[in-house]
Specification:
The chain has about 170 residues and is mainly alpha-helical. The chain is about 80% helix and about 5% strand. It has 7 helices and 2 strands; from the N terminus they run H-H-H-E-H-H-H-E-H. This is DUF2878 domain-containing protein.
Length: about 170
């Protein structure tokens, strides 16, 4: 289990770094990594349903962030590498990030609020994203928005797991 979690985490990080370093040129490599993440998954049915239900929600979040001026990408409304990055994140939820599912939803919200905006700040440092607010305001506003949506995704994931296990 530990090796699977570490492998999943490393694969997700590979997609993250490829996306920020190569942007559109990362798509082939990131796509292959995502296929590998799915192939290694021990809960393919749950991961499939999670991708189907949560990826549109995640992309709606990004669209709202762009439309409201919180984020700006080089490609409108957002680049394809961001879709791949979200897919990789969702495929890590039941493996390397399973600890989030074990938290109460309000605790997961706080963890996401504290850490998720850092990924976008890093994207801004790599000059693949522009933040529409000063960093501390962005952290609060986008952190709350992102954490809310991700908490809903965690809830959806719990419901999917219950549905599969009944």
């Amino acid at each position: 289990m530990i090796l699977r979690s570490v492998t999943n985490f490393v694969l997700f990080q590979a997609v993250w770094f490829l996306s920020l370093l190569l942007e559109a040129d990362s798509l082939l490599f990131s796509g292959l990594i995502i296929v590998l993440m799915f192939w290694l998954s021990k809960q393919k049915k749950q991961d499939t349903l999670l991708l189907i239900k949560a990826l549109p929600l995640a992309l709606l979040l990004e669209f709202i962030a762009v439309k409201s001026g919180l984020l700006e990408f080089k490609v409108y409304p957002f680049p394809l590498w961001l879709v791949f990055l979200w897919a990789a994140l969702l495929l890590s939820l039941n493996t390397s990030m399973v600890f989030l599912s074990k938290l109460k939803l309000w605790q997961a919200f706080l963890v996401c609020m504290a850490f998720a905006p850092a990924s976008y700040w890093a994207g801004a440092r790599f000059e693949v994203i522009s933040l529409g607010l000063p960093l501390w305001q962005f952290w609060l506003v986008y952190g709350a928005l992102w954490s809310t949506v991700f908490t809903v995704i965690l809830f959806i994931n719990q419901k999917i797991k219950l549905f599969i296990n009944r």
